[in-house]
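[09:14] KT: can someone run the structure on this one? pasting the chain below
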Amino acid sequence: MRSTKSLSPVVISSSNVAARLQPVLTQEEPRAFSLAVPNSVIPNEVRGVRNLSWDFQRRKLLCLCFLLLLPQVLFAAKHPKYGGTLRLELQTAKISLDPREWKPGSVSAAENARLAALVYDRLLTLDDYGRFHPALATEWSHDASLKIWQFKLRPGVRFSDGALLTAKDVAAALQPLLPAGLQISSTENSVVIRSSHAVPDLLE
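[09:31] RB: done, C-alpha cells below
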C-alpha cells in the first residue's frame, strides 16, 4: 500500500514578490570613475619611462628647430651682408673723434672713446682684466732703459677705401697724440717711439 504525503500549499502574494525583488531593482548600475594615483605610489621604473619619453620629445623638438635654422646660418656664413646703416644713441650732444679734445674722466670722453673704437684701430687693445693684446701691432718691445719702444705692425691692413696701411701712416697719425718729448719714426714694417727719459707707463 503506497503511502501518500500531503503537500502544504504555498501562497505567493504580490507583496512578497515585490519585497524580494526590491533590492535587485534598486541596485545602482556600476559607474565609471577615475583614479588619481600620487607619484609616491608609482614605481620608480614607471616614472623613469615617463621622464625619458618627455626628454625624448623635447630633444626631438630641439633637433627639428636646429635643422630648420641650419640653412640660414650656413647661408649667412658663406654670404655675409655688407653695408647698411648703424645708428647709435649717445648721452652727449657733442661728438669728437679727436682724442686731443677728450676731457679725461668726463661722460663725453667715454662716449667718444666708444664711438672711436668703431672707427679706429689701436696698436694694442686692453681687455677687462687689464691685459694687453695685439691689434695693429703684433709684437712690441722696449730697451733696458725704457726709452725706446718698438711696435711691429700687422701686414695686409687696409683702410676703408682699400688703400694699404703703411708704417708712415701710423707714425703720422700717432705723432700729434704723443706727449711732449716723445718722437715717433717708422721703418719698413714697424714704428719706433723714442723718449729722452724712461717711460715705463707708455702703454697706459
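[09:33] KT: thanks! Confidence is low (pLDDT under 50) at residues 1-14, 24-37.
[09:34] RB: yep, looked fine to me
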